[in-house]
Every structure is written in C-alpha cells, then in structure tokens.
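Run log // design_07
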C-alpha cells in the first residue's frame, strides 16, 4: 500500500464500481469501453473530490483545524464536496466562489452545486475571475485566527500532493479490480482540470509498476499549460509518497481541444454525449468536466484513434448536480 502512512478520514463509499458499457461500445462500433464510477463516492451526490478530501480533511483534523477554507467556480463540484465534508466533521467552511463563466443566468447562479453549498451551511464569498485566491484565502485564514479559530486551506480541487493521494489510491483500486474482472485496459481517459485527479492517477499507476497510458481531456487551459501543471504536481506527489521519478514527462498527455468557448461553457459535443450516455446506459455526466472528457473519448473512437479491438476505461468524476445549473442550456 502506497498510502498507509498518511492521515485519512473515511468519507467515500469505496471501492467504486467498475462497469462495462456494452450499449455505448456497440453504438460506436468498438472499442470495448468501461467506466470507473467515481460519481458513486457518496458524499453529497459524490464525485472525485471526495477521495481527495479523505486526505485533505484527515490532515486538517490532525492539525486541529476548526474551519476549512477553499475556492472554486460558482458551480464547483469540489466546493460542494468540501462543504459536505466540513459539515460531516463538525467544521466551519469558508468558500471563495470565482465567477468564471461569462453572462451566467439565474439557474447557474442559484441552483445545482451552489444551492447545495448553501444547504450544507458553507459561508459563500463571491469574487471576480482572476482574483489572487491564494492571497484572499490567507487573508480569511488570518481573520479566523484573530477570532481564536484554527484554519486549514484546501486549494482549488484539493489539487496539491495531499489531495492527489486520493487518486494514487484510485489507481491502486482500479488495478485490483482489473484482476478481479480479468480485464486489461489499453488506455484510460479522464477529465483534466485542476490537475490533482490526473496527477494522482498517473503516480498511482507508475508507482505500482503499471504502464497504462492515461489521456487527460482538458477543460480549462491550453495543452502546454495543462500538461506542465499536471506534470509538476505528479512530480511533487511522487516525492511525497517516496516514489520520486516514477512519472516521466511523456506519461502526461492532455488534449485540450474539447474546451470550446471556455471553462464551463457548453459545447455541441458535450451536449451530444451527455444525452447519448443517459439514453444508452442510464448514466448522467456533468456539462463541465466528465461531459467534455467523454466527448473527447467518443471523438477519438470516431476518428479511429482508439482501435475497435482495444479496451478503454473512462474515469467518471461525477458532478451530476451541475446538470441542474445548465437546464436552460442543454438541448434535450
């Protein structure tokens, strides 16, 4: 076990299922596609951040924190799960919400994840796009200390070496399930955003001696910037678990051609695959992360970049609550 020496608190329903998608595979004419169901982690509708928060909140508890501080976009899945984790553990949660989407409508501003943030009791503070959030979180931490509290800062997406441990563990879990299902994959595909999921997963595979290629589908920034960010966090995470150098630069691939107009902005490809998976497999994918990553996977199959004879696993990072914020945009 790569993670036995790190503080951790139980928040997620693990292991999450590994399931074949036979109707999708048939519709696309191959390859054989499977899904790793990290939408089923359980905490406040689940999602990938719950794995990360087991380690972030474990460290927060070890340090005696009374309040967690974090940041995300208005419809952040990470913020919703952090608010839920704080509530479950009896801690306050201070949230900095960034307005990243241009001209948002009332559903985007008031439903979906942000509604759940409010229900979960988080204190929401709103900021303009591009704010120096590190400085702002430190400022709030100072306010909490002045009141006699003990703050703990969780970076956006819980994407630091502590949070990335959650996806080191996910990779180990997937490898065990491959043995149980007697399946060997040729490629893994996942959404690549704040970098913690992508980096942690890559480290978990390589530190376990597995060479499964991982394709990240970027949702925010250009390819060179995204790959550099993921690789830097991969290196730091590998150092953190005592496996320095297990990930090399060539291991980190992020195709950022499916972002569309920008972060959180819908695309025709996303809209198509969200409906396709709902109607072919009864699975729900979010418009911001998993929907765009799935659009990338489907496009790769259609272009012949994945062979019909291959087996592909898609990491479903959750985010179903975000669908409600896009109810006036998704074309059904």
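design_07 sequence
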């Amino acid at each position: 076990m790569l993670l036995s020496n790190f503080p951790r608190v139980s928040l997620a329903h693990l292991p999450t299922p590994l399931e074949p998608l036979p109707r999708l595979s048939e519709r696309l004419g191959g390859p054989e596609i499977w899904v790793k169901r990290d939408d089923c982690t359980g905490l406040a509708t689940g999602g990938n951040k719950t794995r990360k928060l087991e380690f972030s909140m474990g460290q927060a508890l070890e340090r005696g924190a009374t309040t967690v501080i974090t940041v995300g976009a208005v419809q952040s899945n990470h913020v919703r799960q952090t608010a839920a984790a704080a509530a479950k553990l009896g801690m306050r949660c201070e949230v900095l919400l960034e307005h990243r989407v241009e001209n948002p409508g009332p559903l985007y501003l008031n439903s979906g994840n942000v509604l759940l943030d409010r229900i979960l009791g988080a204190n929401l503070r709103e900021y303009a796009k591009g704010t120096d959030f590190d400085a702002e979180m430190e400022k709030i931490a100072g306010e909490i200390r002045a009141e006699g509290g003990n703050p703990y800062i969780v970076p956006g997406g819980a994407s630091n070496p502590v949070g990335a441990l959650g996806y080191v563990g996910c990779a180990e879990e997937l490898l065990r399930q491959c043995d149980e299902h007697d399946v060997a994959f040729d490629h893994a595909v996942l959404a690549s955003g704040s970098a913690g999921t992508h980096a942690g997963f890559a480290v978990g595979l390589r530190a376990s001696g597995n060479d499964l290629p991982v394709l990240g589908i970027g949702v925010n920034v250009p390819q060179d910037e995204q790959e550099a960010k993921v690789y830097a966090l991969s290196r730091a995470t590998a150092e953190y678990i005592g496996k320095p150098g297990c990930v090399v630069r060539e291991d980190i691939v992020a195709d950022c051609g499916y972002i569309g107009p920008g972060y959180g902005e819908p695309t025709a490809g996303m809209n198509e695959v969200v409906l396709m998976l709902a109607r072919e497999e009864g699975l729900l994918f979010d418009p911001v992360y998993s929907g765009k990553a799935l659009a990338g996977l489907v496009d790769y199959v259609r272009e012949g970049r994945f062979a019909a004879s291959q087996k592909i696993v898609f990491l479903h990072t959750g985010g179903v609550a975000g669908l409600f914020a896009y109810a006036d945009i998704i074309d059904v």
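The chain has a mean pLDDT of 97.
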